[in-house]
Design a protein that fits this description.
By secondary structure, this protein is mainly β. It has two helices and 14 strands, in the order αββββββαββββββββ. The chain has a single domain, classed as Lipocalin (Beta Barrel), CATH 2.40.128.110.
Length: about 190
């Protein structure tokens, strides 16, 4: 008789768990996937693209319906940033101390609940630690997840101030060209079940 409450709790846990699973999804550099950084300077706007990255999402799915983002992990080799302009890339790597701090990384720190905006389209606020150039800050990134036939596409935009990460905005031509200290990072990554 003393085991009855324990057994009841176990049965309830099993009932709650039925149909719910945590599923891992991965995105890789490929056509259609992109991480783009947009910035400004006193001459013209600029952009630089991450040519390499690793991104994983752990999603809670119940009866084929997305319920939560359990975890997101993203890493980008700094020297994979490519603007198509060698001098600009070199200045970027120097400003980000790429020889010492080789990666930009984001790791979520807690699960995020989702809201279904429309069929197959979900919104979440993902909180986590963003690290680059030896500095780490907590950020909250609003994301949208779009259900596809074989996974989910994550779309997000996040503004960042380089000074917050101890990055001196790059300059060129003896300081006559200066970049703004804020940038906008745009994510468009389709993750497939791993």
């Amino acid at each position: 008789m003393k085991l009855t409450p324990l057994i009841s709790a176990f049965v309830l846990l099993l009932i709650f768990s039925v149909g719910q699973s945590q599923t891992q999804f991965k995105a890789v550099p490929a056509d259609g996937n992109s991480i783009l950084i947009e910035g400004t300077s006193n001459i013209h706007d600029w952009e630089i693209l991450a040519k390499d990255f690793a991104s994983e999402m752990d999603l809670v799915i119940e009866e084929d319906d997305l319920k939560a983002v359990n975890a997101i992990n993203l890493s980008i080799p700094v020297k994979s940033f490519d603007s198509g302009k060698g001098k600009m890339d070199k200045n970027t790597y120097e400003a980000m101390n790429a020889d010492t701090y080789e990666l930009v990384s984001f790791t979520s720190t807690s699960p995020a609940s989702v809201v279904e905006k429309s069929p197959g389209v979900y919104q979440a606020l993902v909180k986590g630690e963003l690290s680059m150039s030896g500095a780490t800050n907590m950020v909250s990134i609003p994301v949208e997840l779009y259900k596809t036939q074989s996974g989910y596409t994550l779309k997000a935009e996040q503004g960042l101030n380089m000074i917050d990460y101890e990055i001196e905005p790059p300059t060129a031509l003896f300081g006559t060209i200066t970049t703004g200290e804020t940038v906008n990072v745009i994510f468009d990554l389709t993750h497939y079940k791993s």
